[in-house]
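User: structure tokens for this one?
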Amino acid sequence: MPRDRSTAVIGTDGLDALIRVLAAGGRTVIGPTVRDGAIVLAEIAGGDELPYGWGVELEAGHYRLRPRDDGAAFAHSAGPQSWKTYLHPQRERQWTADRGADGAMTVTEDDTPPSSYAFLGVRPCDLRAIAVQDRVLSGGPHTDSRYRARRERAFLVAVECTEPGATCFCTSMGAGPAAEPGYDLALTEVVDAGGHRFWARAGSEEGAAVLAELPRRPTDGATETTARERVAEAADRMGRTMPQVDLRLLMRDTLQAERWNDVASRCLTCGNCTMACPTCFCTTAEDVTDLTGEHAERWRRWESCFDLEFSHLPGGPVRASGHSRYRQWATHKLGTWYDQFGSSGCVGCGRCIVWCPVGIDITEEAHALNEERAAGTAQGEAPS
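Assistant:
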């Protein structure tokens, strides 16, 4: 056994053991698995449920599974879901109200204990997205206590990217393909003549304790070198890029650009991009009652800034046009998010490109806005 508890090499048996050790510790293990023609996130009980031998073919508005010859488990890009689904659920009950026999109403807050999750296969872009959501939902004066409870209990197993997809641009956003701090364990998959293995590193005391329970061997120079090279090579093979400019200023300087009209003519305002995005966090309240009127519940559910009702006021919606709603989403994600939370709201995962039904590409739009600004035809509004 290695003396250094913070790093080791594990095989596929070690990956299976990792899942079982985490489950034995009372955690619900969530990881990638093949279902309904996609690689989705779901509860898994063993390593045989991982998508060994499957990759993905991505393009704007296009997603397909494709078989791989090397049997890799994590050589696929981000799927339709993100870990937000578990940390910030799509729908969550807030409280219930019941009318008693005496006519009095009793309101009870929903205090369902939060799940203790272990996330296996967190991509570096998604690791950044979780950090972004941490700042949004638990880093300010108005903390989401339920998010924080789930987040504090979560065990993160990051997997570095060695094969980016055609819609990935994490390097442009500084969010990959190498894993940044914030994980409990990080894995880099290596499949070559030396076998199928994973270079594992602990990022926390709990991660080191879990790693110590797995079948493993000391880190060897060949595995570490190959792992680092594969990640470095992935950085040079991104399918998309953002323009190498200050995106915050670009959004500010092009608020009146003609390009917004072009994209608005294609956008369906369906909100798919916000639902797939790992950092979008907006919600609304939904009240429901039973047929007797004696029982009511309030639920919180995801909302999208593409919804006409999202900005509805007594006088009507603030953003009545698709043009204004798309511009709001893009300029907030790439620009004014900095003003609120100190970073970009985009991590370069490419989900919004893949899951847009008409193939709108946020990187293409950013390049077009930059070109229009360079030509001197775009106009913005000076900050007040």
